[in-house]
Amino acid sequence: MTIVLLVALLLLVPILFLLKRTKPSKRVPPGSLGIPIIGQRLGLLRAMRAITAEKWIEDRTNKYGPISKLSLFGKPTVLIHGQAANKFIFTNGGDSIVNQQTQSVKMILGDRNLLELSGKDHSRVGGALVSFLKPESLKQYVGKIDEEVRSDILMHWEGKQQVKVLPLMKTLTFNIICSLLLKATAKIQNMLKEIVHQKKVEQEKNGINPRQDLISCLLNMVEDDKQVLTEKEIIHNAVLVMVAGHDTSSVLITFIIRLLANEPAIFAAVFQEIAKGKLLGEPLTWEDLSKMKYTWRVAMETLRMFPPIFGGFRKAATDIKYGGYIIPKGWQIFWVTSMTHMDNNIFPEPSKFDPSRFKNQASTPPYCFVPFGGGTRICPGYVFARVETLVTIHYLVTKFIWKLLSDNSFSRDPMPTPTQGLLVELCSRNLS
To answer: Fewer CB within 10 Å: C terminus or N terminus of the chain?
Structure first.
């Protein structure tokens, strides 16, 4: 018995030491850091998979208020949410808050991608990406996206009685983004590095079209006879665009397909808008997509209810005063998207799917609808996501009718994932 007590005491001493070390002397938000290392990570991950994360956060808010401390992924963290929190996150220029992703994300994307940069570096790299992803540039790529979608539907959809939507959407959106990133599809950084080198040689010898692909565009950005982005930044942000450009869009399109199966009236309205706008068989143009206003409102409402990104992380670069408390330097800041999306005071009857909410987007208070971020932190791929989504939905709606063969359940891991990948039964439309 004495040995057991001695072992327990030896185990308790380092735990108490760690708790003492992490106990801040400043007026930090209320809450608990929990068990060292573990913290509240397991509880949050369980809630996300069970689609009860909003309830989990709501319970914390009821207990501690709108700002609270906890420990996530081994680091002391402050949880914030709401309109003021969104504005605080998205308008901060980087002097007090810097970007920070979890270590696993950093290992995948690299440390010089846009999600890791702040201040002048963020503006420089973000500006370079925007030059490729702005509407004036994307107008040139509608035909290429149209071609990729048609080819994918012919190969994976036509003639099939059943399909699993999410895996097919991931394949499609990955092929689309790769076709715009570079002509030779590269899946890992070493391959991207080789392609960058090849394009540099081509550029020096013959010159290259800066609008040929993303890497060509980034290589051609020069200020004061100096390349704007380093080779490392080009590679890491090419990987970022590959991941972001297919993962989030595939989730959005999948949930639109799920929604249309559950809402026949909305399905009919989308089909009516699309069918009257274009002769069958003709490739889509930028002008065609600009007419699909109702379809995009359906997409926006889908993003409101099922945002692909639940939240994100930042880091306090200095002690920050927020909400009457101090967020200590070095602590993580965890902000959550969907709390404003499902706020009854902002969006009445938030559980009801209603695309008319976005008929007049000016009526939505700023920093309340944030699936693409906001302010200076708005996602540079916003317009690309719109083009990709509208082209895909156009062809699926004009070619097929579908019904769900799986239930409506889904989990977050960390993005929304429908049961069985959203299994649907297909029926071809007979249109002349």
So the answer is: C
